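Human: I'm a chemist; would you kindly supply sequence and structure tokens for a protein?

Assistant:
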Amino acid sequence: MTEPMDEPLPERARGIARVLGTLVGLFMLMEFLEGLGYLRQLDTSGIVLRGGFFLVFAGCLVGWFKELVGALLILSGTVVIGVVSARTSLPFWVLIIPALVGFLYLFSRIGTRKK
């Protein structure tokens, strides 16, 4: 068994991404499910925002198995949330933390790519 500091950097990034991704995924799932109760009352930007939350949730779930696909889903969901939240008053950390998870998954995938 290796010590945690002996692991390569992409492996450590994958572990951090999985832990943060689990937390972010649960938060995004709660936000997505919260909007389902009044979906008919939402305007178009609210529905698109819920779609961004779902993309981030799906990326956090898929990222456990396929880092590249998970990173792309998370980053695309973050872009959707960012575009829609330019019109609303979402806190800035709603964009930063999922983007960090997406970039960590991307870094771990690129760092362990087979040659």
Remarks:
- Residues 23-109 form one domain.
- The chain has a mean pLDDT of 85.
